[in-house]
Design goal:
The chain has 88 residues and is of the alpha+beta class. Helices cover 34% and strands 17% of the residues. It has a domain at 3-51: YefM-like fold (3-Layer(aba) Sandwich).
Length: 88
């Protein structure tokens, strides 16, 4: 259930906006036109995952096979001479 607030209302009562965001998106208008949307972090994370946006490193590494959303092909180091470590 979205809520709409003017920029002035938002500035004067941010706690009201936060409480409303816990129930659904809050549209903040500027001169009568939607300008911003306030979401709870849970709603944001859900939206980001559904759109393929934000993914933690652990989630990316957990993907395997043909289902992986990324390609990882690190560049080859050239021009370096590597020697084995001497632990003596």
């Amino acid at each position: 259930m979205p809520t709409t607030m003017t920029s002035r209302e938002f500035n004067q009562d941010t706690s009201k906006a936060k409480k409303a965001a816990a129930k659904g998106p809050v549209f903040i208008t500027d001169r009568g036109r939607p300008a911003h949307v306030l979401l709870s972090i849970e709603d944001y994370n859900t939206l980001a995952r559904e759109s393929g946006g934000v993914m933690s490193l652990a989630e990316a590494v957990a993907q395997s096979g043909d289902d992986a959303d990324f390609d990882f092909d690190p560049p080859k180091l050239e021009g370096f001479s590597l020697k084995p470590a001497d632990f003596d």
